[in-house]
Specification:
Chain A: This is Thioredoxin domain-containing protein. The complex is a heterodimer of chains A (169) and B (167). Chain A has 169 residues and is of the alpha+beta class. In chain A, 42% of the residues lie in helices and 15% in strands. Chain B is built from six helices and three strands. About 6% of the residues of chain B have low confidence. Classes of the chains: A alpha+beta (169), B mainly alpha (167).
Chain lengths: 169, 167
Amino acid sequence: MKKKKKLYIYILIVIALFGTIFFLNQSNKNELYDKPVSDLNPATRAILDDPNYQNIILPAELESKVDSNEGSFVYFFASDCGFCAQTTPVLMPLAEDLGIDLPQFNLREFEDHFRKYAINYTPTLAYFKDGVEVARLEGGISTNGSSGYTEQNYIDFFNEHGGQGAAAQ
Amino acid sequence: MKTAGLVKLHMWDKLLIGFTMIILFAVFIAGCGSAEESNENQGHSHGVAATESEQLETTASLADMPAFLDNHTPLTTELYSEVGQYMDILEMIHCYCGCMDDDPAHDSLLRCYLADVEPGKVTWSDHSTSCGICKMEAEDVIAMAKQGKSTDEIIEAIDAKYKPNNM
Protein backbone atom coordinates (compact mmCIF):
# COMPACT_ATOMS: atom_id res chain seq x y z
CA MET A 1 0.00 0.00 0.00
CA LYS A 2 2.74 2.39 1.01
CA LYS A 3 4.82 1.42 -1.99
CA LYS A 4 1.87 2.04 -4.26
CA LYS A 5 1.38 5.47 -2.77
CA LYS A 6 5.00 6.30 -3.32
CA LEU A 7 4.76 5.12 -6.91
CA TYR A 8 1.80 7.44 -7.50
CA ILE A 9 3.78 10.32 -6.11
CA TYR A 10 6.67 9.54 -8.44
CA ILE A 11 4.36 9.27 -11.44
CA LEU A 12 2.69 12.56 -10.55
CA ILE A 13 6.04 14.30 -10.26
CA VAL A 14 7.23 12.96 -13.60
CA ILE A 15 3.99 14.07 -15.28
CA ALA A 16 4.22 17.48 -13.65
CA LEU A 17 7.80 17.95 -14.80
CA PHE A 18 7.12 16.88 -18.37
CA GLY A 19 4.01 19.01 -18.40
CA THR A 20 6.03 22.03 -17.30
CA ILE A 21 8.73 21.43 -19.89
CA PHE A 22 6.11 21.05 -22.61
CA PHE A 23 4.29 24.18 -21.49
CA LEU A 24 7.49 26.22 -21.37
CA ASN A 25 8.55 25.05 -24.81
CA GLN A 26 5.19 26.01 -26.22
CA SER A 27 5.16 29.40 -24.58
CA ASN A 28 8.75 29.99 -25.67
CA LYS A 29 8.03 29.33 -29.35
CA ASN A 30 7.24 32.55 -31.11
CA GLU A 31 4.09 32.53 -33.25
CA LEU A 32 5.28 35.14 -35.75
CA TYR A 33 8.50 33.35 -36.63
CA ASP A 34 7.60 29.76 -35.75
CA LYS A 35 10.94 29.46 -33.94
CA PRO A 36 11.87 29.34 -30.26
CA VAL A 37 12.55 32.87 -29.02
CA SER A 38 16.06 31.81 -28.00
CA ASP A 39 16.89 31.04 -31.66
CA LEU A 40 15.98 34.54 -32.80
CA ASN A 41 18.52 37.30 -33.31
CA PRO A 42 18.49 39.73 -30.33
CA ALA A 43 17.35 42.47 -32.71
CA THR A 44 14.38 40.31 -33.78
CA ARG A 45 13.50 39.58 -30.15
CA ALA A 46 13.35 43.31 -29.52
CA ILE A 47 10.65 43.91 -32.15
CA LEU A 48 8.42 40.88 -31.46
CA ASP A 49 5.71 43.00 -29.86
CA ASP A 50 6.31 46.13 -31.91
CA PRO A 51 3.00 46.98 -33.65
CA ASN A 52 4.91 47.91 -36.83
CA TYR A 53 6.30 44.38 -37.22
CA GLN A 54 3.22 42.19 -36.95
CA ASN A 55 2.69 41.34 -40.64
CA ILE A 56 5.64 38.91 -40.73
CA ILE A 57 5.70 36.17 -43.36
CA LEU A 58 7.87 33.05 -43.42
CA PRO A 59 9.68 31.53 -46.43
CA ALA A 60 6.74 29.37 -47.58
CA GLU A 61 4.33 32.32 -47.49
CA LEU A 62 6.88 34.48 -49.25
CA GLU A 63 7.03 31.97 -52.08
CA SER A 64 3.27 31.91 -52.41
CA LYS A 65 3.15 35.73 -52.43
CA VAL A 66 5.80 35.84 -55.14
CA ASP A 67 3.96 33.27 -57.24
CA SER A 68 0.53 34.79 -56.71
CA ASN A 69 -1.25 35.77 -59.92
CA GLU A 70 -2.93 38.66 -58.15
CA GLY A 71 0.39 40.33 -57.44
CA SER A 72 1.85 41.17 -54.06
CA PHE A 73 4.12 43.71 -52.46
CA VAL A 74 6.81 42.38 -50.13
CA TYR A 75 8.80 44.45 -47.67
CA PHE A 76 12.24 42.86 -47.25
CA PHE A 77 13.86 44.11 -44.08
CA ALA A 78 16.30 43.00 -41.39
CA SER A 79 15.55 43.38 -37.71
CA ASP A 80 19.04 44.73 -37.01
CA CYS A 81 19.03 47.22 -39.87
CA GLY A 82 18.93 50.88 -38.84
CA PHE A 83 17.67 52.08 -42.22
CA CYS A 84 14.75 49.64 -41.85
CA ALA A 85 14.03 50.84 -38.31
CA GLN A 86 13.58 54.34 -39.73
CA THR A 87 11.53 53.20 -42.72
CA THR A 88 9.10 50.66 -41.26
CA PRO A 89 7.16 53.04 -38.94
CA VAL A 90 6.52 55.31 -41.94
CA LEU A 91 5.87 52.65 -44.54
CA MET A 92 3.48 50.36 -42.67
CA PRO A 93 0.88 53.05 -41.78
CA LEU A 94 1.23 54.41 -45.32
CA ALA A 95 0.40 51.01 -46.86
CA GLU A 96 -2.48 50.58 -44.45
CA ASP A 97 -3.94 53.96 -45.43
CA LEU A 98 -3.82 52.88 -49.07
CA GLY A 99 -5.56 49.60 -48.21
CA ILE A 100 -2.53 47.56 -49.23
CA ASP A 101 -1.50 44.40 -47.43
CA LEU A 102 2.25 44.69 -46.98
CA PRO A 103 3.80 41.39 -45.86
CA GLN A 104 7.14 41.76 -44.08
CA PHE A 105 10.02 39.35 -44.57
CA ASN A 106 12.80 39.50 -41.96
CA LEU A 107 15.99 38.55 -43.79
CA ARG A 108 17.99 38.45 -40.56
CA GLU A 109 16.10 35.29 -39.62
CA PHE A 110 16.32 33.69 -43.08
CA GLU A 111 19.68 34.85 -44.36
CA ASP A 112 19.87 32.58 -47.40
CA HIS A 113 16.98 34.59 -48.85
CA PHE A 114 19.27 37.57 -49.45
CA ARG A 115 20.81 35.67 -52.33
CA LYS A 116 17.62 33.84 -53.27
CA TYR A 117 15.75 37.09 -53.87
CA ALA A 118 18.84 39.11 -54.85
CA ILE A 119 18.44 41.64 -52.04
CA ASN A 120 21.42 43.99 -52.12
CA TYR A 121 20.19 46.60 -49.66
CA THR A 122 17.84 46.41 -46.73
CA PRO A 123 15.15 47.56 -46.75
CA THR A 124 13.87 46.70 -50.23
CA LEU A 125 10.25 47.10 -51.22
CA ALA A 126 9.36 44.82 -54.12
CA TYR A 127 6.33 43.95 -56.18
CA PHE A 128 5.88 40.41 -57.48
CA LYS A 129 3.37 38.91 -59.87
CA ASP A 130 3.17 35.38 -61.30
CA GLY A 131 6.56 34.48 -59.84
CA VAL A 132 8.30 37.47 -61.41
CA GLU A 133 9.67 40.54 -59.69
CA VAL A 134 8.04 43.47 -61.46
CA ALA A 135 9.77 46.33 -59.64
CA ARG A 136 11.64 47.27 -56.49
CA LEU A 137 12.71 50.25 -54.42
CA GLU A 138 16.11 49.60 -52.84
CA GLY A 139 16.93 51.39 -49.61
CA GLY A 140 14.81 53.22 -47.10
CA ILE A 141 13.24 56.53 -46.27
CA SER A 142 15.09 59.83 -46.19
CA THR A 143 15.20 61.44 -42.75
CA ASN A 144 16.11 65.09 -42.33
CA GLY A 145 17.77 65.44 -45.68
CA SER A 146 19.71 62.15 -45.66
CA SER A 147 19.84 59.93 -48.73
CA GLY A 148 16.66 57.92 -49.34
CA TYR A 149 13.08 57.92 -50.62
CA THR A 150 10.29 60.30 -49.73
CA GLU A 151 6.84 59.19 -48.61
CA GLN A 152 5.57 60.31 -52.01
CA ASN A 153 8.04 57.91 -53.72
CA TYR A 154 6.47 55.06 -51.78
CA ILE A 155 2.90 56.21 -52.49
CA ASP A 156 3.72 56.42 -56.20
CA PHE A 157 5.26 52.95 -56.13
CA PHE A 158 2.18 51.50 -54.40
CA ASN A 159 -0.17 53.20 -56.84
CA GLU A 160 1.82 52.30 -59.93
CA HIS A 161 1.98 48.60 -59.09
CA GLY A 162 -1.25 48.33 -57.18
CA GLY A 163 -2.80 46.06 -59.80
CA GLN A 164 -5.61 43.81 -58.69
CA GLY A 165 -4.17 43.38 -55.22
CA ALA A 166 -4.80 47.01 -54.37
CA ALA A 167 -8.01 47.36 -56.38
CA ALA A 168 -9.95 47.21 -53.12
CA GLN A 169 -8.73 50.63 -52.03
CA MET B 1 6.26 0.25 14.10
CA LYS B 2 3.26 1.40 12.14
CA THR B 3 3.70 4.99 13.27
CA ALA B 4 7.37 4.93 12.43
CA GLY B 5 6.55 3.72 8.92
CA LEU B 6 4.09 6.54 8.41
CA VAL B 7 6.57 9.12 9.56
CA LYS B 8 9.11 7.74 7.13
CA LEU B 9 6.61 7.99 4.27
CA HIS B 10 5.75 11.54 5.19
CA MET B 11 9.38 12.46 5.12
CA TRP B 12 9.68 11.06 1.62
CA ASP B 13 6.53 12.88 0.59
CA LYS B 14 7.84 16.12 1.94
CA LEU B 15 11.23 15.67 0.36
CA LEU B 16 9.79 14.80 -3.02
CA ILE B 17 7.17 17.51 -2.98
CA GLY B 18 9.70 20.04 -1.75
CA PHE B 19 12.15 18.98 -4.45
CA THR B 20 9.49 19.23 -7.15
CA MET B 21 8.37 22.61 -5.90
CA ILE B 22 11.92 23.92 -5.99
CA ILE B 23 12.40 22.72 -9.58
CA LEU B 24 9.05 24.09 -10.74
CA PHE B 25 9.74 27.37 -8.97
CA ALA B 26 13.23 27.66 -10.48
CA VAL B 27 11.93 26.89 -13.97
CA PHE B 28 9.06 29.35 -13.51
CA ILE B 29 11.39 32.11 -12.34
CA ALA B 30 13.73 31.44 -15.27
CA GLY B 31 10.78 31.65 -17.65
CA CYS B 32 9.58 34.92 -16.16
CA GLY B 33 13.10 36.28 -16.21
CA SER B 34 13.52 35.78 -19.95
CA ALA B 35 10.05 37.19 -20.60
CA GLU B 36 10.92 40.29 -18.63
CA GLU B 37 14.17 40.63 -20.50
CA SER B 38 12.42 40.64 -23.85
CA ASN B 39 9.90 43.16 -22.55
CA GLU B 40 12.72 45.41 -21.48
CA ASN B 41 14.20 45.36 -24.95
CA GLN B 42 10.94 46.49 -26.50
CA GLY B 43 11.15 49.84 -24.78
CA HIS B 44 13.79 50.92 -27.25
CA SER B 45 13.64 48.91 -30.46
CA HIS B 46 16.77 50.74 -31.58
CA GLY B 47 18.46 49.66 -28.40
CA VAL B 48 19.95 46.35 -29.54
CA ALA B 49 23.56 47.25 -30.28
CA ALA B 50 25.05 46.14 -33.57
CA THR B 51 27.70 44.37 -31.51
CA GLU B 52 24.92 42.16 -30.09
CA SER B 53 23.03 41.44 -33.29
CA GLU B 54 26.04 40.90 -35.58
CA GLN B 55 27.79 37.59 -36.07
CA LEU B 56 31.56 37.42 -36.31
CA GLU B 57 33.61 35.00 -38.37
CA THR B 58 37.37 34.66 -38.57
CA THR B 59 39.46 33.77 -41.60
CA ALA B 60 43.20 33.58 -42.12
CA SER B 61 43.52 36.71 -44.24
CA LEU B 62 41.70 39.58 -45.93
CA ALA B 63 41.74 37.55 -49.11
CA ASP B 64 39.79 34.69 -47.50
CA MET B 65 36.13 35.60 -47.56
CA PRO B 66 33.91 34.60 -44.63
CA ALA B 67 31.45 31.76 -45.29
CA PHE B 68 28.41 33.88 -44.34
CA LEU B 69 28.76 35.59 -47.72
CA ASP B 70 27.40 32.40 -49.33
CA ASN B 71 23.97 33.73 -48.35
CA HIS B 72 24.49 37.06 -50.04
CA THR B 73 24.43 38.72 -53.43
CA PRO B 74 27.47 39.23 -55.68
CA LEU B 75 27.38 42.95 -54.86
CA THR B 76 27.70 42.27 -51.13
CA THR B 77 30.51 39.78 -51.70
CA GLU B 78 32.33 42.25 -53.93
CA LEU B 79 32.13 44.95 -51.25
CA TYR B 80 33.49 42.62 -48.58
CA SER B 81 36.32 41.61 -50.88
CA GLU B 82 37.26 45.28 -51.44
CA VAL B 83 37.08 46.77 -47.93
CA GLY B 84 40.49 45.35 -47.02
CA GLN B 85 42.13 47.61 -49.62
CA TYR B 86 40.46 50.77 -48.28
CA MET B 87 40.71 50.24 -44.54
CA ASP B 88 42.57 53.50 -43.89
CA ILE B 89 39.76 55.54 -45.47
CA LEU B 90 36.84 53.45 -44.19
CA GLU B 91 37.99 53.80 -40.59
CA MET B 92 37.67 57.58 -40.98
CA ILE B 93 34.08 57.36 -42.23
CA HIS B 94 31.05 57.80 -40.01
CA CYS B 95 28.42 55.11 -40.52
CA TYR B 96 24.94 56.66 -40.43
CA CYS B 97 22.97 53.42 -39.90
CA GLY B 98 22.79 54.06 -36.15
CA CYS B 99 25.44 51.53 -35.11
CA MET B 100 27.76 54.30 -33.91
CA ASP B 101 25.12 55.56 -31.45
CA ASP B 102 24.79 52.15 -29.79
CA ASP B 103 26.44 51.16 -26.58
CA PRO B 104 28.84 49.46 -27.19
CA ALA B 105 29.21 51.23 -30.51
CA HIS B 106 30.88 50.59 -33.82
CA ASP B 107 33.74 53.09 -34.13
CA SER B 108 33.59 53.60 -37.91
CA LEU B 109 32.11 52.29 -41.15
CA LEU B 110 35.02 49.85 -41.34
CA ARG B 111 33.78 48.12 -38.18
CA CYS B 112 30.55 47.17 -40.01
CA TYR B 113 32.71 44.87 -42.15
CA LEU B 114 35.81 44.10 -40.13
CA ALA B 115 35.93 43.74 -36.36
CA ASP B 116 39.63 43.02 -36.07
CA VAL B 117 42.63 42.52 -38.37
CA GLU B 118 45.71 40.79 -37.06
CA PRO B 119 48.44 38.95 -38.91
CA GLY B 120 47.00 35.53 -39.73
CA LYS B 121 43.60 36.28 -38.17
CA VAL B 122 40.91 38.48 -39.67
CA THR B 123 37.58 38.86 -37.85
CA TRP B 124 34.68 39.75 -40.14
CA SER B 125 31.36 41.19 -39.03
CA ASP B 126 28.19 40.28 -40.93
CA HIS B 127 26.57 43.54 -39.77
CA SER B 128 26.83 45.16 -43.17
CA THR B 129 25.15 42.25 -44.96
CA SER B 130 21.81 43.35 -43.52
CA CYS B 131 22.58 47.07 -43.47
CA GLY B 132 21.55 49.03 -46.55
CA ILE B 133 23.28 52.24 -45.43
CA CYS B 134 26.57 50.46 -44.65
CA LYS B 135 26.69 49.05 -48.17
CA MET B 136 25.67 52.26 -49.93
CA GLU B 137 28.25 54.27 -48.00
CA ALA B 138 31.05 51.77 -48.62
CA GLU B 139 30.19 51.60 -52.33
CA ASP B 140 30.45 55.39 -52.57
CA VAL B 141 33.68 55.48 -50.55
CA ILE B 142 35.35 52.85 -52.71
CA ALA B 143 34.14 54.46 -55.95
CA MET B 144 35.48 57.87 -54.88
CA ALA B 145 38.77 56.38 -53.70
CA LYS B 146 39.15 54.72 -57.10
CA GLN B 147 38.61 58.13 -58.72
CA GLY B 148 41.54 59.36 -56.69
CA LYS B 149 39.58 61.60 -54.29
CA SER B 150 41.30 62.52 -51.03
CA THR B 151 40.11 61.16 -47.70
CA ASP B 152 38.86 64.62 -46.69
CA GLU B 153 36.86 64.94 -49.90
CA ILE B 154 35.35 61.50 -49.36
CA ILE B 155 34.42 62.26 -45.74
CA GLU B 156 32.77 65.49 -46.86
CA ALA B 157 30.83 63.80 -49.66
CA ILE B 158 29.59 60.97 -47.40
CA ASP B 159 28.49 63.40 -44.68
CA ALA B 160 26.71 65.57 -47.24
CA LYS B 161 24.79 62.58 -48.63
CA TYR B 162 24.00 60.47 -45.56
CA LYS B 163 24.18 62.72 -42.51
CA PRO B 164 20.73 63.84 -41.34
CA ASN B 165 20.47 67.62 -40.90
CA ASN B 166 19.64 67.28 -37.23
CA MET B 167 22.83 65.40 -36.37
